[in-house]
Every structure is written in structure tokens, then in C-alpha cells.
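Step 1: inspect the first sequence and its C-alpha cells.
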Amino acid sequence: MLSPLLDELLRAAVESGASDLILHSGRTAVVRVEGQLVPVESASMTEADLDALWKECGADAGAKDFDAGMTTAAGARFRVNLLRHLGARAAVLRRIRSDIPSLDSLGLPVELLREWAVRKSGVILVSGPTGSGKSTTVASALDWLNETTARHIVTIEDPVEFVFTAKQAIFTQREVGIDTPTFAEGLRRSLRQNPDVVFLGEIRDAESALTAIQAAETGHLVFATLHASTCADVISRIELLFAAEDREGIRKTLAGQLLGVLCQRLLPAREGARSLLCEYFSNIGSSRRIIAEGRMDDLQDFVSRGDPRNARSFSTSMLELIRSGQIDEATALENSDRPQELLRILRGIHSSSETSRR
């Protein structure tokens, strides 16, 4: 049973819309709300408070690192990481939201995602830093499929985040460490479970990457997430999981099976909210050859200069957010991978605007 203090902190985290709750023995708690760290006005966490959390998560008293899932009495779900900090106990609890937002509500390239999602086979890669909403994007896409098509969808996650209610589709949801030992093993076993669609919670190693590509080759639609900052970095990250002598073959196979890549970030917006920033491309035409040949600079140019219906760079997306008033220019430049490119675009817009007023 959790301590009264931790019960109250979890309730406050849910009510404030916090994504994370950070706990250290001997300190007051901190929550992350809209990307910002906010101290909580409460008593300091004690060893007794954390001892109760350790027991609730099923961790041994001497555990130094331990991952678990937890559900409060009110039904709120959290992913829990227990750790040691300078010899003392600490924990980070991430809120797992139960409500799956509609695909149209997230600011995503909806038509393109739907076009990918209705394909019978191929690989769809969703990338971004921790907390950028990758799992939410995939869950929304899968729930759209759930509403529109009769498919068997298998998810392999750590932990299971969104729990789906079957509509037209059937879901088999498996958690790493509870239902299957690893992502790669869960993915490999899933291919014997008659799936139409497989969601791999994260590509972490060469084995899971290769199995995902092979699953697409054998007629399955595969969604997968990974950590990379741009579309070109996604391809490079997968390539570098493999030994040097295997990379050319992997690039060629991936080039043939990849449907598209979506990278996303959450930027601080006006009035304390956050705005979704996307970079993406559909793997059609020359991008297949570029990927097969490993020309990542050319791939980034393809994303920047491609047909807006099928490709868009972060710089172009930032420009749209500036024009719509969601973010200011300073925020855009601070978060841009190519600030000089963005600055040139902004100067061109300002110059055109001044010329038109004369």
C-alpha cells in the first residue's frame, strides 16, 4: 500500500496534467507539466514513502534499478522506474494516459498516415525524443484502423501504454518482461500469431530491426518507434545497429520495405502549451535509391525539397507554426537543427512582406 503522501502526489500529478513525477528521498517532489519542471508544495519524501513504493512495484528492498507498471486506486496508470541517487532511493513515474486521442486532433499529416496505415505490408517508422508523443501517434493510428478495418493487431511494448478496446479490429497486447522476454523475441513470436499489423514499441538493436524488416517482407504492416532527431538520422541509426559488412544489404532491404518516416518534437508554444512539430517523407521515387545507396545528405534534401503532400522538413513545419502564431521566431530558431536555413527563409518572408507594402 502506498503512503498517504505518495497517494496525494499521484492524484495531484493526474489533476495537473503532468507527464512525469520525480521523487528523491529527503526532497519535495517535482512534476513535469507541458515540458516544464514544477516543484510540488508538499512534504519531503521519506525512506518509508519510497519503501512502500518499492513494495508496491514488487521490487526487492536492495534493488538499485527496477522498472514496473502501477495502477492507482482511481485507475490512473504509471510507468515506474526505481533507482538509486547518491546512495539514496529515487523514482520517476511517467503517466500512461488511457484516452486515445483522435488522429485528426494531434497536428499530424493525417492523410499521409492513413495512406500508410491501410497498406497490407511495409515498415512505418515514428521517431523523436523521449516524451515527444511517439506512442500517442502510433496509438491514434492504430485506433483509426480499429474503427475502420477488421485486422489482427499485435503490440509489443515496454510497458503496454494504451489499452485498446476492440471495435472492428482484434488486439493482442504483449508487455516485455511479463508476456515476452525481449522486443526481438516478442516480434519474432508475433509472426506465428496470425497478425495483420504489428507495433514494435521500440527498435533497440540489430535483431529487432532485422526482424521488423523481415516481417514486412513476409506480408505484415509494421509500426515501430526509435530515438532519432531527423528523417535522415532514422535511416542512419538503423544502419549503424549492424556490423559494417552488413549495412549495404540492410539499406537495400529497408529501402524496399519502408513506407515512410515521421519524426516529431514538442515545442514550447504561446500561453504555456506545446505545439507538435513534424518532419516526414513517404518513401517513393528517388528516396528508395537514395536510401539504398546511403546518401543521407541527399535524403535530407529530398525531405526539404519534396512535394509537400509527401515530404516536409522541420524548417517548413516551423514556418507554418510561426505563421499560425503557435510559436515565435526565437523559439523556432532555438529548436532548429538548421537555424541558418530557417533564418534565410524568415528573412525572405520579411523582405517579401516589406516589398509588397511599398
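Step 2: inspect the second sequence and its C-alpha cells, then contrast the two.
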Amino acid sequence: MKVAELRYVKPSELVKLPGNPRTITKQELNTLMDSLRENGWWPHRPAAVERQPWTDKLVVLDGNQRLKAWKLLKKTSVPVVEYSELTDEERNDIILRGNINNGEWDIDLLQTEQFEGVDFGSIGLHIDLPEQPAIADPAQPEHEPDNDPANDAEESEEEALERESFYRRMMGDFIYPTNNEYGVPVLLKDNMPVHLELPMEPWGVESRHKVMRSTYHFYVDDYRFEALFKDPITLLMSGCKMIVEPNVSIHDNTPPAYALWQIYRKRYLSRYLQECGMQIWVDLNVPQRFAEWNLLGVPEGYNAFSTRGVSGWQPTLDIHYEQAKRVSGLDHPNLVVYGGGKDIQQWAMEHELAWHPEFINGKQRNDKK
């Protein structure tokens, strides 16, 4: 047996253990997700993996339930230790010893040929097995194989229901931590976006039942996302990884009390979405009168910002760029500029910033011909 050093891999590089003898209830999975969300995946207890030579992917010997919960939380890296040159006895020892803590044992699978001859008591696993092992009928398998590559690429209906249940449990009339006198929730810094993932699309322009894996922005009419403040589950279930936080309409003549309420709402929603695993770009596109209020709840060192580019408005971009520098503490902050003409694109290039052209759907293109 050989053991490699600890390293971090993407969840997509891992596949679940075929015929995993450990199962988990929805309540136990919810508890596990709560623990991982609060404490992270401890590197002192990494997933034990073994490479599959026929797919070049890593099969998880120990850590399948944590991986399932980790994926539901949309986390991006997993601590693993890779084993190689394992004997069947060594492999079974890792599978059985490492899986004692989370979930329940599948008695039928423990009686299959894979674990024949294992002394369960010697490894601290005390279970009562029937005297006559159940013989599975190959024509009528009782357990669906869970190592199908399609299961890793597409979420099953059961996993989707579990994920939605988690999102709804995270909702409530909470008072989140704050760093200001108005109680505007403070954002988390431990899962900030680093790069803008494509496609980047406006929320509500395409069908809301569409699965969209990357980024939504809210540089759209207010009515398109007003419902999200009441129930953001649709957004979470869309599969997107990150959003530019809602750009609610605030004008120079907006009453200050209303402007503060709008800023509170979008920051509260953003904190909730972060708690559910989503990454947030802080929107800076508000009138200068409310620029400082718009940064309430954005902690020092936060470094993921976005703004709306409009041709001829480079001075406004200069202000937003300086705000991002001040909050991030960096001379070159992580700022995405959305939309605008060639002059805005050129401004972004001069500042070495990401620029994304404004979305125009097919109907709009036809109307403009």
C-alpha cells in the first residue's frame, strides 16, 4: 500500500464508491451539511481515494457522505489522500473503518462477496448479520449503482429535493452579524468569487426553469427580481454558482430611508445566498449620494465587485474603482465592468479589469434590425 500526501481536488474529479455499504437519512445529511458549512472540511480527516485506471478519476473509499453534502453546499475543493497498490483487505479496511461515524450500514451490501471473510468486530464495527446472507438477483438489483458518471454530471431528483430542503431550512427571520449601526448584514469573505464564470446572463430574461451553471446579474428592471426578496429558492435551484447582487433602483432624489431599506434588503439577501454556498459580486452602481451606505456590510478585505458601464461615464467608473481599492486594500481590485461601448471596454483594458458586453437576446436583435 502506498499513500500520497494531502492535496485538494475539485469535486468533479471524484466519483462515489460503487456499492457503498453506508447510507444516510435526510435528517443526518442535513446535520452533516450544517456541520460542514460551519466548520468546513477538516484537512485532518481528508477523503480517502483510489484512482480508477479505466476513467482516471478518483473513487472515494472514505468520505462519500461528506462529499455528497459538500456538493450540495457548492464547495469547490476537497482535501484528499490518495491510496495506491491496495490489496482487497486493505481497501475494505479503509472503507469500513472510515465510514463508521456518518449514516447507517446497508446490511445487504455488507453480505456481498466484496466483504466476504471480513471480521467486522476486529475493526470496531459491531453489527448483527443474518445467519443466511441474502443473495441478490442480478436481474432485479435492489440497489441502483451510484457510480454512474451521469449521476456525477446531473443532479438526481432526490438530491435536488435534499438541496431545496437545505435552502428552506436556512431561511428565517434572522439577525445576521453586522459591522454598522444600521444592522445591515456583513458579507462573508471565505467564499468570494475570483474569476467571472460564463455564461453571464440577466436574471429573468430567459426562462427561470432553465438550469444555468454560472453567473446571473441583476442589471434589469426591478420587477424581474422583486419576488426573490420573498422567496429566493428559484434562484438557488437554478444551479448558478455566483451572482452580481441585486441592483435595486436608487436615484439621487430617492428618500434616504427608502434607499437604506433597499441596500439592507439586497445585502440581507446576499448574506443568505452566501450561507447557502453561492458566491457574491458586490454591486457598486448606485448614485454617489448613497455610495457609502452601499458599502455597509461589505467587510474590509472583500475583493469581488461589479458595476455597470455606460458610454461617456468613465468618471463614474473611476469612483467605483477607487471604492473597490479602498475596501479591498489592494492597488488592483477585482472589479467586473458590465456593458458599455468601446470606450468602456478600453477603460477596462487600461485598468486590467474584466469587461463583459451587455446581453442582447434574440428578440431584441430582431427588433433592432
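Step 3: confirm your contrast with the notes below.
The CA atoms of residues 175 and 185 lie 8 Å apart. The longest helix spans residues 256-275.
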